[in-house]
Amino acid sequence: MKQILYAAVAALSLVVAPVVQAQERDGENLALIIGNFDYEVMEDVSGTQEADRIGGALRNAGFQVIRGLDLTNDRQVGMARIFAERLRDADRVMVVVMGHVVSSDDDSFLLGVDARETDVLNAGLNGLSLTAVQSLLEQRPGTAILMVAGNRTKPDLGRGMRDGFGATPIKQGVTVVRGRADALSKVVIDGLLEPGNSLRQALPSRSGLNVSGFVSDRVSFMGAGKGDEVSPELGQLAYWNATRDIGTKEAYEAYLRRFPQGIFAQEAQSSLEELRLAPLRAAQAAEVDLGMDRPTRRAVQAALTQLGYNTRGVDGIFGNGSRAAIKAWQEANNFDQTGYLTRPQLVVLQRQKQEADAAAEREAEAAREAEERRAEEARQNEQKAWERARELDNLRGYRQFVRDFPDGRYAGEARRRITAIRQANQQNEQSQQEQEQENEGSSFDNSAAAAQERIFAPNRVIRLAIERQLARNGFNPGAVDGEITQRTRRAIAAFQNSRGLPVTGYVDAATVSLLAL
């Protein structure tokens, strides 16, 4: 809604009706008077005579007066636009509004005479935003006055609206005076338009008068007294006094824009620098008040480092690295980036560290559980492999187990079985040799066994596979070339003997099966 209101004041162009009177003079003072008394639907408001008295007094004091009576909202917004256009050439400015003034939580409005039931959603369509008017007045800090006349009649209002100026925020450098129309007339004529009166002297506390915003003992609305020659230096002094009383960054910058080479330009620059450094100094003092000892500072550095902000060391000394880390942390957490910590920030930092610790512990626990699962899976795989090796109970099975699990629980037992099988094979081979010697070198001449061998080892490829399996099981067949020699026969016989088969030295169905061909 505010955007609608400000856009209306800044951009709406309307023709002002004959009731709007403007007296043009060459003076540097400007006034806007809007008096809405004769409402179409709402109760009428008194104060016409007081509006005339104020307008006449301002004209006599050299003000260019833009004055309108009984305006619709469109026409009063148009008048505000005319005021805004002429404001750039004015030194002193005053706005006087009379009529039904209503407010929401953060703005107030002078209702036009055509206003109907007004609520928080349509206030900007029914009335002139006084916050927008203040935004115009704050361009002349210290010499800008908004006067709001109250009235006894109360309009019917909708949701979110109430009667009166309310708690509308006051802009920097703007003086706001509220009260009955006759009280406003008196304070304008007898106080504010008297040269030499400071704002505080011109606006004494009295019944029916409420003064807020900028009020100074040193700044006069009308400047020096009658008969005094006002030099440029004195005018600049008055502006400087107003600037100093306001004491904000915006006020000092406004002074420097108006008087870039002014008498007080250097002091204004110094004041700006003080304002710039004030938050930093306040932050430094606040951190000192925390009384952090070196272990506490180390804990802070450790927490920042854990959260990903490099302090360039955890030594309990807040150097450039620590200050940069604090600034980065403050930025990430929407704090003012001073590089110095406050007590609430320490609480947030500690909570974040605790959350990070908890997250790290959860990750570590998850890693432990995953490792336990992997270890259990490996244990089960090893157990299954050992059971397979035991089922085969041969050199090939045990050797495969040792290759897969060289450091496993059964690796030692597998190696012992390999040694035992080798020794048994050697003994069997030796016994076979002895048997052969006893038989005076008999040559495994067995026609029936030979016939079986021709069936189960009919070609060189199969005989080559038989020789390889004999060698893998620890029985030396001689050259592995697919040719069955007497050495091969002895190896076959030794294998048959180790497996409890009839010892013929020839390959048969049982031998082929146990060789796993």
From TrEMBL:
GO terms for biological process: proteolysis. It comes from the Bacteria. Residues 424-434 have a biased composition (Low complexity). Pfam families: Peptidase_C14, PG_binding_1. One of its GO terms (molecular function) is cysteine-type endopeptidase activity. InterPro entries: Caspase-like_dom_sf (IPR029030), Caspase-related_regulators (IPR052039), Pept_C14_caspase (IPR011600), Pept_C14_p20 (IPR001309), Peptidoglycan-bd-like (IPR002477), PGBD-like_sf (IPR036365), PGBDSf (IPR036366). Residues 1-22 form the signal peptide. Residues 358-383, 424-446 are annotated as: Disordered. Keywords: Signal. Residues 27-100 form the Caspase family p20 domain. This is Caspase family p20 domain-containing protein.
